[in-house]
Amino acid sequence: MTRRALSLAQRLTLAFLGLVTAVLLVNGSISMWFAYHDATAAAVRVEQEKADAAADRVAQFVTELEQQIGWTTRADWSRVPMEQRRYDFIRLLRQAPAITELLYLDGEGRERLRLSRLEPDVTDSGNDFAADPRFRGAREHRAWYGPVTFRRGSEPYMTVAIAHAGRNAGVTAAEVNLKLIWEVITSIRVGGTGYAFVTDTAGRLIAHPDMSLVLRETDLSALPQVAGAMAALEERVRTARGVDGRSVLSAHAAIPRLGWIVFVEQPTAEALAPVYTAAYQTLALLGLGVVLALLAGVVLARRLTDPIRALQAGAERLGQGDLAQRIAVSSADEIGTLALRFNEMAARIQDAQETLEAKVADRTRELAQSLEDLRAAQDRLVQSEKLASLGQLTAGIAHEIKNPLNFVNNFADLSVELIAELREAMGKAGAALDPALGAEIEELCQMLRDNLGKITAHGRRADSIVRNMLAHSRDGTSERLSVDFNAMVEETLNLAWHGARAERPGFNVTLEKRLEPAVGQLDLYPQEFTRVLLNLFGNAFHAVQQKDGPGFQPHLRVTTATRAGTVVVQVRDNGTGIPDAVRSHIFEPFFTTKPAGQGTGLGLSLSHDIVVQQHGGEIAVATEPGAWTEFTITLPRHAAVVEGAA
Amino acid sequence: MIARRALLAVPLAAPALAQPAPPRIGWLTAQRESSLAPFIPALRAGLVERNLVDGRDIRLDFRFGEDDAARVPALLDELLRLPVRVLLVQGAAVAPVIRARPPVPVVFVMSSDPVAAGLAESLSRPPPGVTGITFLSAELNGKRVELLRELRPDLARLAVLSNPAHPGEQRERAEAAAAAARLGLAARFHQARNWEQLEAAFAAIAQEGAQGLSVFADGFALQNRAVIARFAADQRVPLVSGWRAFAEAGALLSYGPRLEESYRRLAHFVARILRGARPEEMPIEQPRHFELVVNQRAAAAIGLDVPVALLARADLVLE
User: What class does CATH assign to A477-636?
Assistant: First the structure.
């Protein structure tokens, strides 16, 4: 398994990000936890206060009723006339719409007056209510609140009985239609959509904004918050399900004297909105912090790692051999210093390498030159040796052949003289001789003379060949002279031209001479060098004669030129050229392409000897078969005297 | 978070291009339109309070029986065919409509006790698909006799006029008779369900020399309240009835629930049913306030002084 290596920048960013995020997270979590608790506590406190306020409002409703009933509980009320009492009751009914019925019991608990909105009025019935809880409760506690009852199973009623002031006082009991609390309950605002409701200690609903629930005598004791309140638990605020099943934050406050519990409930989402807001704010801040940390981390890591990366990249390029590379790090810190040192090192290496390269190049060039020279020398040596040995061989052969040939030639000459003597002798004996025999002898003598002529002619030819062969063995007998090189070339060309014309009268060729005057005087062996030139010119004329096509213009160009320490003469013709197979043999003795009897095959061989061995120069040929041939002779201007090979 | 949700919800709810036709609310009564003149505006006001505007959010379809209870089934059919989402039924039409068990929620308003009339088992547990408001007229008839007696302590002969077609009329008569007996009065009962019978009743009442007249409140009486009041004034007989409209028309006293308040309350049932509540979950409601109206002019016209205690009790004194 390969773990993907993280770059320094990534690691730095991650480290920075991780650090900041961890700090932010811890900080955010703690502050969020506190904010949550604060906000929850505040929401709970607010709910409690709302429950207390709602309980106050509900209690206020009953207190107001009490106060209104209080008009009829004065100490002197037992002594006022019945009409006045009735009037007071009527006023009370007018004032308090919630009171449906009013009952006055005298000190003995007897019914003295009853006024009702629905029932017939009763005056002085004398019915005994002494044992009635209303009478006894009021007498005992001054104010007595009856249990909530539902008239006809629907409308909630409660009795409020209040004892009159004074001794042996009576009691005023009022039947209160609790439906009228509805206005109080609905006027209690609990947040935006919260509501309040009231139950008795048995969990029965007394007041609720939804009147229908009250009229149906709803028992809410099953709701956990109601059950909790009934059990008088410490916890006054809790989250629970409302009557409609929604999640609510429920708070309650008891009204002990009535045995009622007032609940305020607010949808949890609404009640805890500040908590959520705080949480969202913290989260948003956290997110912002992380984003900022990320940005800062990236920027910081960049600033740290960019120079390092530049350093790395520079080192890499340097490693790859790009010594001209310089690291662009401008910072003044350790990395900057490092980059500076790096650059210096690179510069030094570059200098060293450049020097080294120059030296190597020089040495290489020198070596190559030496090798070249060596090769040329070797080639020359091999060629010279080869040609020299051939030349010696040729010269040896010539020596051996020369004496017999001299005999042949001399005796042929002697035989001619002898035939002349024979004819003379015959002339003396002329008459003595049979004329027919004489004619026959004469004819034989003539044939002998002719044969001897042929022997002599061919002997001379053989002699000429032998002489040429002997030229290989010439040992510098001729003299070395300073000659006008251009003049010599021009003269020789004319000689060759006339020779060729003499040989073939119709021969024509365009001669082009490019003779550089600067060539001037040159030390050489004029006789031998003339031979070389004649040979080259002769070959050239022969080559252009061989090539005969329509529109062909034979052309010969002779060029002389002076170069550094040398003189060059070039002979170029546009003749048949030299095939590749032939080219390597042209300087060998007896090699010829001419028909038998026309060339000796020694011309170029001798030329090579003369140029290379006698003059210490070079002879080279360049050719394009079928197009042109160019011989180039390079002579040293001040040639060391090369002893010609024997 | 809530605010955000609300914001999200707005653009979803806003382009209600294909608005469905507003639900139709049927109104069915056996009476004439004129007999309900002050109450229908109260109902409309109640609906508007709950954001139910006729023609925009709902459509109200009225059917009046023109005092012919026999037309109620036909009108009911007519409304059901529209069809209506909620059926509002008033007065004499209530019993036949509930017994017909229509397939739509019924909200009734009636003066008599639906439990006594056998239309519901209890006020808190109405039958399926039915709820409404009762005025508890019967109990108050005893109270009215008592008030008449308080106004005229020498009252001995009492005439009671009722409409036998009115549901619960018998129970109202029983209450009145019991009160009269308790107070030691001689009560004579007269019935009139139409104009001829009303004239005959007038003649009989005039003849017997009644000292007080109690008219049971129903549509017929309400419609003819001015005639009845004039008759009472002519006979110099104090007249008591259930509804404020009688006192305003010339009756000396009226004691009963604030009807406009109850008609307005009907809208509460309609609104909740349209929001998906089932009628039987809403107990039958009783009036919250009862009001006593004293017409001083009528008293003066027949030479009666209204006792201070009665004036003190009155919620409204018409001078």
Answer: alpha beta
The CATH superfamily label for domain A74-181 reads PAS domain (3.30.450.20)
A17 token code pair: 């990000």
Domain match, B212 and B303 both: yes
| Range picked from A239-243, A306-310, B42-46 for highest mean pLDDT | B42-46
Instruction: Give chain B's radius of gyration (CA, Å).
Output: 22
pLDDT beyond 50 at B251: yes
- The answer to whether the Cβ–Cβ distance between B123 and A83 falls below 8 Å is no
Q: Which range of residues forms the domain containing residue B68?
A: 15-134+258-288
Q: Measured between beta carbons, which residues in chain A are less than 8 angstroms from residue B182?
A: 120
Query: Is the whole model's pTM more than 0.80, yes or no?
Result: no
Check CB contact of A154 with chain B, cutoff 8 Å. yes
The ipTM value here is 0.83
**Helix and strand numbers, DSSP H then E, in chain A:** 14, 19
- Contact by Cβ (8 Å): A481, A523: yes
Name the 3-class secondary structure at A444: helix
Enumerate the residues of chain B whose CB falls inside 8 A of the CB of residue A119.
139, 142-143
Residue A587's identity, in one-letter code, is F
CA distance B266 to B97: 17
CB contact under 8 A, B286 and A154: yes
Please tell me whether residues B272 and B311 are part of one structural domain: no
Taking the C-alpha atoms of residue A428 and residue A423, their distance in angstroms, rounded to an integer, is 9
Q: Which of A89, A215, A276, A283 to mutate to test the interface with B (most CBs of B within 10 A)?
A: A215
| Smallest Cα distance from A211 to chain B, Å | 8
How far is A26 from A121, CA to CA, in rounded Å? 76
The answer to whether the beta carbons of residues A219 and A227 sit under 8 Å apart is no
In chain B, the residue whose alpha carbon lies closest to the alpha carbon of A192 is: B2
